[in-house]
Specification:
disordered N terminus; 49% helix
């Protein structure tokens, strides 16, 4: 039975496309990297005309990535209907990414040791080459999760927060590899110049010369002078370059090639400087202003320097274009919804924001949904917050500069609503009123397949406002229980607060059953710990609707991705000449563009035009697909192509329509002190072991999923 279930799972993965996508990427990595370490280029010469180059042909790279896009569209498009487990690579990417990069660099040493007549220059040159390869791969992988909602994340059963961790570690390695690449290719020409100087002096003494200088006066002074002169012509396109065979001046196209890469490296370094955790947290506004333009500048210059970089970034860039051009709820002109929210103080540092306004849709599951909130009265910053209900409501703790200013604004508005201009106002009075606040929201985002969907038992653990994301999931589960009786899953909640005041504030929103509450900094009430706290006043809630469940539209993802890759490849071959399969650093664009040797400007233009056309192609493919989705396919009744505008507004109609809600704190038994997590998990495990094992065909497996949202100590 286990063997049969294993084969069924394997066939399911292959059918979904996820496993095949991983195998396709692995095959591309083998084709792209291994020829450097193992000389099997003779095979490729006979198949694709490798011509002794270590660079994988652009057409082959684009073709394999196109297949990957189709497989990911298949897997990610079906994520909503399957109980997928999260990709462990996204949850804990550090070990894999660190190991892969270190192995690539360390592998150069045995390669160098096996070379005949190799010297230190060959070792540095090998590190420079392989670090360039690694930079290209890290950049491509770094861009995959930058879209807040995309099928790349759906296929990995992950959400944007998990993608950020993957983006961070691959991004740091991308910067590290491009710095290594630049340093190595600075040392290599310096060593070559020093060696050429010695050869020149040796042959000069014997009256014969094998090669001339690369720039005027290179060999007229000391060895250091020769090195500096060589580096000057190497990095500066306007320096005079001489032909080493004839001694005549020639266009310094190599200087253009190197200078573009050097500027890209400087952009990457500035990008990383503003991404340091301490600076990013202290000045997030400055980080965001620098991060996006510097990253775009680095990508463009990297693609001009080496066009294969452009092919590798297309999968992430087109997904970002789709996400930023109304993939679900936004328009191409404004990604934020202008709404009016009802704001209410909960405690001295908690505030609840209930958003009213448009009917929102999301392909994300309840419990994983979040949105970006911007308050014009506080400036242009936007911050992400988890939804605390199936309707767009969030709970925010004053834990930073922006959130403190939001709390102060809510406090001023509440005092004004009470008619109090001066003096201290008790929190009990301030929390009894709700005021209007003009807001802008972007979203809703989240995981298409939540990580707990495939487990029979789920234990949610939360501290303070960290309970917010778990409340919609439990709310949906409880409604399913009311509608259908027993369900295949069992959910429990452990919530930790500090004081009775926090319990009074959060208690009305906690589930009635299956909840264990701990107060870590409170003592028993004078009238008994089990007594009901003071009820919260009746508050007019805004007109809210539950966040609807939208479709993933895999056809849109697949169309834009494949067309973008095809047009990118076509632009490369067109501008490089039909007979030039590879980048020719000396001849620039090949025989198809200019006659004779190109000038520096012609060379730069020949390298920049394919990159510009590639970005235009992505934008054009996105715009066409967006138009077709709105005007052509939306009118079709095919369920597989429709954009899911008429999909259900979520499980049940919770929160739909205007409502007047009386939030009464429920009577419950409260435990004092910190929870013993080992004991709680042991009880949950015992509950799991007591249930019958589900059938092999069931998507729900007998197991316990523990989800924690709270401080690091928790």
């Amino acid at each position: 039975a286990r063997a049969g279930a294993g084969w069924s799972t394997l066939l399911l993965l292959i059918g979904n496309g996820g496993a095949m996508a991983v195998l396709s990427v692995a095959s591309l990595a083998v084709i792209d990297v291994l020829p450097f370490y193992f000389d099997y280029r003779g095979v490729w010469d006979s198949l694709v005309g490798y011509e002794g180059s270590y660079d994988t042909p652009v057409g082959l790279t684009a073709g394999i990535l196109g297949v990957v896009v189709l497989l990911v569209a298949l897997a990610g498009g079906r994520a909503q209907g399957y109980a997928l487990r999260p990709c462990s690579l996204l949850l804990r990417p550090d070990l894999f990414v660190h190991s892969a990069n270190i192995m690539l660099l360390a592998g150069v040493i045995p390669w160098w040791a096996c070379q005949s007549h190799a010297d230190a220059t060959d070792l540095v040159d090998g590190w420079g080459y392989i670090s360039g390869k690694a930079c290209k791969w890290m950049m491509g992988m770094c861009l995959l999760p930058i879209a807040r909602q995309s099928l790349w994340l759906n296929a990995a059963a992950a959400g944007f927060p998990e993608g950020v961790a993957f983006h961070r570690v691959t991004g740091w390695w991308c910067v590290a590899q491009v710095v290594i690449h630049s340093l190595c290719y600075t040392v290599t020409p310096a060593l070559d110049a020093a060696s050429d100087y010695e050869d020149w002096k040796h042959h000069l003494a014997h009256g014969n010369h094998t090669r001339g200088p690369e720039c005027p006066g290179e060999f007229d002074g000391t060895q250091l002078h020769a090195v500096l002169a060589a580096l000057r012509v190497y990095f500066w396109p306007w320096a005079t370059r001489l032909s080493v065979e004839t001694g005549e001046p020639e266009p310094n196209t190599l200087g253009v090639f190197i200078l573009v890469g050097l500027i890209g490296t400087l952009a990457a370094i500035s990008l990383s400087a503003f991404s340091l955790p301490r600076l990013r947290r202290a000045r997030y506004d400055l980080f965001y202003v620098v991060h996006v333009p510097a990253a775009a500048f680095f990508i463009v210059l990297g693609a001009v320097h080496e066009f294969q970089m452009m092919v590798f970034v297309v999968p992430g860039v087109f997904a970002y274009f789709l996400d930023r051009t109304d993939f679900l709820n936004r328009t191409a002109t404004s990604r934020f919804h202008h709404v009016t929210a009802r704001v209410r103080l909960m405690t001295a540092d908690w505030v609840r924001v209930d958003v009213a306004g448009p009917s929102l849709r999301s392909e994300a599951a309840y419990g994983t949904q979040f949105l970006y909130l911007r308050v014009p009265a506080l400036g242009g910053e936007s911050h992400a917050f988890s939804l605390a209900a199936r309707c767009p409501s969030i709970v925010i703790k004053a834990n930073g500069d922006w959130t403190r200013r939001l709390h102060e604004l809510a406090q001023k508005q509440a005092a004004a609503a009470l008619g109090i201009e001066h003096g201290a106002v008790p929190m009990s009075r301030l929390s009894s009123v709700a005021t209007d606040l003009a807001c802008e929201i972007d979203g809703v985002y989240g995981n298409a397949s939540p990580p707990w969907r495939s487990y029979s038992h789920v234990l949610f653990v939360a501290g303070g406002v960290g309970v917010a994301p778990w409340l919609p999931a439990i709310e949906e589960w409880q409604e399913m229980c009311r509608l259908h009786g027993a369900t295949a899953q069992t959910m429990r909640l452990v919530w930790c607060g500090r004081t009775h005041a926090e319990l009074d504030a959060m208690g009305p929103y906690l589930p009635e059953s299956g909840t264990t509450v701990f107060l870590t900094r409170a003592s028993a009430r004078e009238d008994g710990i089990d007594a009901a706290p003071e009820p919260v006043s009746t508050i007019e809630a805004p007109a809210q609707r539950a966040v609807g469940r939208g479709g993933t539209r895999p056809w849109l993802f697949a169309f834009v991705g494949v067309v973008s890759l095809c047009l990118t490849q076509m632009s490369y071959f067109y501008f490089k000449g039909a007979s030039s399969l590879y980048v020719d650093y000396e001849k620039g664009c090949g025989d198809g563009c200019f006659e004779g040797e190109p000038t520096e400007a012609q060379y730069l233009l020949a390298r920049a035009l394919p990159v510009a056309c590639a970005f235009v192609s992505i934008a054009a493919a996105t715009a066409f697909a967006r138009w077709a989705s709105s005007h052509v396919i939306a009118s079709m009744k095919c369920a597989c192509l429709a954009s899911s505008e008429g999909e259900s507004a979520g499980t049940g109609a919770a929160g739909a329509g205007a409502q007047s809600t009386t939030l009464q704190a429920r009577q419950r038994s409260v435990l004092l002190g910190r929870p013993d997590m080992a004991e709680l998990i042991d009880k949950a495990v015992a509950e799991v072991e007591a249930v019958a094992t589900p059938e092999a065909a069931s998507p729900i497996m007998t197991g316990l999923c523990v989800c924690v949202c709270g401080p690091d100590a928790m």
